[in-house]
């Protein structure tokens, strides 16, 4: 074969490769989801951002201004028909349906209207060939942020970093929320903790930053207890990083001092919830991913909590929302969506109370929608669910109430980020402005002490 012939063929194959890339790009959204619906027509094509109906402004109940607010359930899954829908359910969902009396899953039409700001899309494109996992196998070493670092993930850890870098603006502000722990067996009294909380993501501001930027923090967390009286005034700040241990500082009112909590991460139980809420269970999974080997299994179609407006309505009562064994089905909404399945197995020589986790990430947002935790004997222990709905003030989708941590051993469940009962809506913020909480210096022991002793 002549040199000229080889050159012509090389150019031809290169053109075919570029053409294939272009076709794939046309078939995918900018952050990696399949644009098309499924063959059965039960998952629609990606629709792009959908605005609220006229008259909405932050503070008004979002459900009144959603274009599909009058939809009725297509069907409900319960113990009598769970086997019929088992191929679209997860093990934890099946166990709930079969073992918890009265538990049902109302299934509604599916909608795909979660988009991203233009600058997140552009940074995602810029990540091609740049985003990189560190040599230690788990830290995010390189990326153009804010973005989805790996829109076409090739490994489980890449998909997990898409979860940790899911765009939620510079901050998510929880001015007044509650966490509920259902009663222990034999009791009729649950726990209701009221608090103020803020999540801060300094890398998410419009522009271009790297995980290597000086002093860059993955997330700052502030949580201040308001009720019950035994916890009122206590508070915590945390700083999560891209490749080092989490820093946690806790203010104890009785001692009037701040203490460092070096082990307040992973499976450590959060204070005030009777060991029912591990630190890394928030939003199905949070915190450093270094204790697990993560396997990317692939995609599947699953019924997941989506467009959960009713659960995030400040105007409903907690007694209507929170039932003894589960969040009321009158407020839950499930839709069929494609999700990425990731399995985490604890690394050799490392301990975790749940040595195996399965996590399912929404293809359109990279939020973790559902997950199952297994104990050391390989038995299903916990099932977790995280509702997602539009945050129109920021043009993205974010989490609503988490009706998660159904514990099959204790028979209890936890519902988090509740605004029912007179709380305030959760707000996504795109700019830090002059808000003192949206600065790295706010998430320090000194700042926590000063703010707590006022």
Automatic annotation (TrEMBL):
Task: Name the Gene3D superfamilies on file.
Answer: Lipoprotein localisation LolA/LolB/LppX
Q: Which residues form the signal peptide?
A: 1-22
One matching Pfam family is: DUF1329
InterPro entries recorded: DUF1329
Which superkingdom is the protein from?
Bacteria
- Keywords in alphabetical order, please: Signal
Name of the protein described by the UniProt record: DUF1329 domain-containing protein
Specify the species.
Pelomonas aquatica
């Amino acid at each position: 074969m002549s040199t000229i012939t080889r050159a012509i063929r090389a150019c031809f194959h290169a053109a075919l490769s570029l053409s294939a890339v272009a076709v794939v790009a046309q078939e995918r959204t900018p952050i990696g989801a399949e644009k098309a619906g499924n063959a059965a027509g039960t998952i629609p094509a990606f629709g792009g951002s959908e605005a609220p109906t006229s008259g909405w402004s932050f503070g008004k109940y979002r459900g009144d201004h959603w274009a599909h607010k009058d939809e009725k359930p297509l069907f409900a899954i319960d113990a009598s028909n769970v086997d019929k829908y088992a191929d679209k359910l997860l093990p934890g969902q099946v166990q709930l349906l079969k073992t918890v009396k009265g538990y049902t899953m109302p299934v509604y039409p599916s909608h795909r209207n979660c988009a991203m700001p233009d600058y997140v899309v552009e940074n995602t494109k810029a990540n091609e060939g740049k985003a990189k996992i560190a040599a230690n196998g788990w830290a995010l070493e390189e990326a153009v942020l804010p973005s989805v670092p790996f829109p076409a993930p090739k490994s489980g850890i890449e998909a997990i970093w898409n979860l940790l870098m899911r765009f939620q603006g510079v901050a998510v502000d929880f001015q007044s929320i509650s966490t509920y722990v259902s009663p222990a067996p034999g009791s009729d009294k649950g726990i209701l903790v009221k608090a103020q909380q803020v999540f801060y993501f300094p890398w998410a501001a419009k522009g271009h930053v790297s995980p290597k930027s000086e002093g860059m923090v993955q997330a700052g967390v502030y949580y201040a207890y308001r009720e019950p009286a035994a916890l009122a005034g206590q508070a915590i700040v945390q700083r999560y990083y891209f490749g080092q241990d989490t820093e946690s500082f806790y203010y104890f009112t009785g001692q009037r001092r701040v203490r460092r909590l070096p082990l307040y991460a992973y499976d450590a139980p959060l204070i005030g919830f009777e060991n029912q809420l591990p630190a890394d269970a928030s939003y199905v999974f949070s915190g450093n991913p270094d204790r697990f080997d993560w396997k990317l299994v692939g995609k599947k179609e699953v019924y997941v909590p989506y467009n959960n407006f009713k659960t995030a309505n400040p105007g409903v009562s907690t007694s209507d929302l929170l039932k003894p064994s589960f969040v009321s089905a009158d407020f839950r909404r499930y839709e069929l969506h494609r999700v990425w399945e990731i399995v985490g197995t604890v690394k050799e020589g490392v301990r975790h109370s749940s040595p195996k986790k399965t996590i399912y990430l929404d293809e359109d947002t990279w939020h973790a929608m559902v997950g199952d935790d297994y104990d050391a004997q390989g038995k299903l222990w916990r099932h977790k669910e995280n509702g997602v709905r539009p945050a129109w003030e920021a043009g993205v989708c974010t989490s609503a109430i988490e009706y998660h941590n159904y514990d099959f051993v204790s028979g209890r469940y936890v519902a988090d980020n509740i605004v029912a009962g007179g709380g305030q809506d959760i707000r996504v913020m795109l700019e830090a402005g002059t808000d003192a909480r949206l600065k790295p210096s706010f998430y320090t022991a000194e700042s926590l002490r000063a703010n707590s002793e006022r």
